[in-house]
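Hi F.,

I've been meaning to write this up properly since the lab meeting, where we talked about keeping a consistent format for the predictions we share between groups. The idea is simple: the sequence comes first, exactly as it goes in, then the structure tokens exactly as they come out, then a line or two of notes. No screenshots and no reformatting. I'm using this chain as the first example so we have something concrete to point to.
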Amino acid sequence: MSQGTLKSPSGTLNVSGNWSQAGGTFIHNNGTVNFNGLVAQTFDSHGSTFYNVINSTSSTLHLTGSSLTLNGAFTNAGGIFDANMQAVTVAGSTLISGGEYQASTATQTFNGGLTISGSGTFTGSTGIVSAVDVTVSSGLLTAPGIMNVSGNWQHSGGTFDANSGTVTLTGGNQTITGTNMFFNLTKSVTSAATLTFPAGLTTTTTGTLTLNGISGQLLTLASSVGGAQWMIDATGNRAVEYLSASFSTNPGGTIECTTGCVDGGNNTGWVFELMPVFTWIGAGSDNNWSTAANWNNNTAPGANSLVFFNATSTKASTIDSGFAGSVSSLGIGPGYGGTLTQNRTLDILGSYGQASGAYLQSVSFCR
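Output, unedited:
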């Protein structure tokens, strides 16, 4: 095609030869272009946007000349799709159910998720691959050098080959399912988020495990089933800080999380920072949390503080507007008979428990 306009049918346009566009206009019409040749085919989009594309060739479909943008879905049902150093962006779902997708060296972006099923194979290379959800139910996924995942990682069958690559979880709350062996696994957040691991299964990293929050905004590591253990086996390097972990078993070398970390309980194979305990003594001239003299350490607690009320003082206590607003944990023991009044938002980064006393809230607290 070198001039004029080609408007695709709204159904399926089957192409058994090459697609070459040197000029003119292609209108996708929300239709599907199905490449189904018996020998190798080439595909040069000339920068035109397509809707759905299916590769069902018996040989290889080579991208040439231009990047490929799809407003719909991509399916590789058979044969080889060779990205051939061209960028590919798919707005809808990407399904590799047969044949092989060769990602090559340019960026591949799957905004509707990437699914490997059937006998499908996805082979990463040096180009960055970005996807929302990644699902492997059968077939083979060979990781690229860098794979960014903003949704969930779901591995229920087939094979994941880490290929010395880095999987970076770039979303907020995310979930890993299935048994996985990563090389490098990274998740770093600047707003509090939860990474959920599969209960009863082991997630292994053989390169570097990087899990980070920031001060006051912890990354929580949790089990997919409340009260059930999940396993993390970081056999290589570890770079972890500002985490809250619970019900985790690490069968390998101890994971040391000594900067801003909270032990949420029921952890094995971890070493956490020993956080200072702040006990309410009520020696100040007022009832405010922000008053240093009301605490045993003669300083007001903060985000890395374990706050505790007991029989040491039953004086009423107020979480006042002058208080910073975050603590690691809050425990109100059975000996405290006073009243705790909350006049500002309180962010409890770890655990909360109350055995006695009264807790009056004018605003909510976050856990």
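Notes:
The mean pLDDT is 94.
The longest strand covers residues 52-63.

If this format works for you, I'll send the rest the same way.

G.
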